[in-house]
């Protein structure tokens, strides 16, 4: 039987969480608040996978400059994910290519997957949060 | 089945706020357990008791409050998202030096960890949003 001090909310099985980022970093708050979820989630030591697809690939584009729109450039935070043991970052190949980008344009190392491989990855998850 | 619900959009602005409560009602009627309903992004606006929709319209917040009372639902509003959008309970209002609070009965404000815990503890997480 668990002692009372062991009965905290971090208990439970390790599950496969996938965070799917589909939107541009600015224009709406989804990307920023998605990143906030990922950072908090890291403390729960779950099996975390991040996906960037559609306009979400712009979230990790190099050389973002938000001076003219008066919004904080939060892109450097993606570089900190490694320190939180969030290391499985996938980018959908088609989304990147159709925007004229390559992995050289991205601020973090990622694995490229095509949409069929991504579908397979999604199939393996237990919780998928899409932002 | 043990379910959790994530509500990512605000009431009246977006159909998903209605769909979320309709789904929750239907799931309860079918005998499923709702472990938690978590409100994020503009979804936190579902938890203000200060909204006054026209009388001939539905009142989504009151529906949640009633449902929570009837079924003992755990309705959790994300604290970070709530602070940005001015959703406060008594403690938060005091802590932030604000002159009032607006959280509706049956809702509570807590951290994003509650969302992750819901993902861990539930058989399925059902998400309402774009």
By oligomeric state, this entry counts as heterodimer
- Proportion of residues in helical segments of chain B: 25-40%
State the total count of DSSP E strands of chain B: 5
How many individual domains of chain B? 1
CATH superfamily assignment of chain B?
DsrEFH-like
Condensed summary:
The complex is a heterodimer of chains A (131) and B (130). Chain A is an alpha/beta fold and 131 residues long.
Name its key features.
heterodimer; A: 131 residues; Hypothetical Protein Ychn, Chain: A; 4 helices; disordered N terminus; B: 130 residues; alpha/beta; five-stranded parallel sheet; 5 helices; 20% strand
Write the layout of secondary structure elements.
The complex is a heterodimer of chains A (131) and B (130).
Chain A: E1 16-21, H1 30-42, E2 47-52, H2 76-80, E3 88-92, H3 93-98, E4 111-113, H4 115-123, E5 127-130
Parallel strand pairs in A: 1-2, 1-5, 2-3, 3-4
Chain B: E1 2-7, H1 15-29, E2 33-39, H2 60-71, E3 75-78, H3 79-85, H4 90-95, E4 107-110, H5 113-121, E5 124-128
Parallel strand pairs in B: 1-2, 1-5, 2-3, 3-4
Structural notes for this entry:
Chain A is built from 4 helices and 5 strands, in the order βαβαβαβαβ. Chain A has 131 residues and is of the alpha/beta class. Chain A has a 5-stranded parallel β-sheet with strand order 4-3-2-1-5. In chain A, α2 links the parallel β2 (47-52) and β3 (88-92). Chain A is globular, with a radius of gyration of 16 Å. Chain A starts with 15 loop residues before the first strand and ends with a strand. Chain B has a single domain (2-128), classed as 3-Layer(aba) Sandwich (Hypothetical Protein Ychn, Chain: A). In chain B, 38% of the residues lie in helices and 20% in strands. Chain B has a 5-stranded parallel β-sheet, with helices on both faces. In chain B, α1 runs parallel beside α2. The radius of gyration of chain B is 14 Å and the shape is globular. The model of chain B has no long low-confidence stretch (mean pLDDT 97). The A-B interface holds A 9, 12-13, 15, 17, 29-30, 33, 36-37, 40-41, 43-44, 46, 126-131 and B 6, 8, 40-41, 80-81, 84, 111-117, 119-121, 125, 127, 129.
């Amino acid at each position: 039987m668990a002692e009372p001090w062991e009965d905290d909310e971090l208990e439970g099985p390790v599950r496969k969480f996938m965070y799917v980022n589909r939107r541009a970093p600015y224009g709406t708050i989804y990307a920023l608040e998605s990143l906030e979820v990922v950072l908090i989630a890291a403390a729960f030591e779950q099996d975390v996978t991040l996906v960037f697809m559609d306009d979400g690939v712009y979230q990790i584009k190099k050389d973002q400059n938000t001076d003219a729109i008066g919004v904080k450039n939060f892109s450097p935070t993606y570089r900190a994910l490694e320190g939180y043991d969030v290391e499985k970052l996938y980018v959908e190949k088609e989304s990147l290519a159709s925007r004229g980008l390559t992995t050289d344009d991205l601020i973090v190392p990622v694995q490229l997957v095509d949409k069929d491989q991504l579908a397979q990855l999604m199939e393996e998850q237990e919780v998928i949060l899409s932002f | 089945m043990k379910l959790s619900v994530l509500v990512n959009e605000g009431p009246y602005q977006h159909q998903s706020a209605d769909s979320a409560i309709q789904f929750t009602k239907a799931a309860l009627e079918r005998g499923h357990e709702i472990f938690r309903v978590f409100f994020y992004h503009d979804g936190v606006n579902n938890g203000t008791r200060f909204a006054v929709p026209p009388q001939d319209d539905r009142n989504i917040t009151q529906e949640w409050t009633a449902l929570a009372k009837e079924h003992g639902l755990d309705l959790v509003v994300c604290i970070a998202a709530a602070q940005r959008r001015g959703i406060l309970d008594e403690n938060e209002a005091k802590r932030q030096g604000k002159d009032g609070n607006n959280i509706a009965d049956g809702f509570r404000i807590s951290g994003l960890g509650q969302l992750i815990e819901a993902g861990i503890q539930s058989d399925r997480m059902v998400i309402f949003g774009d």
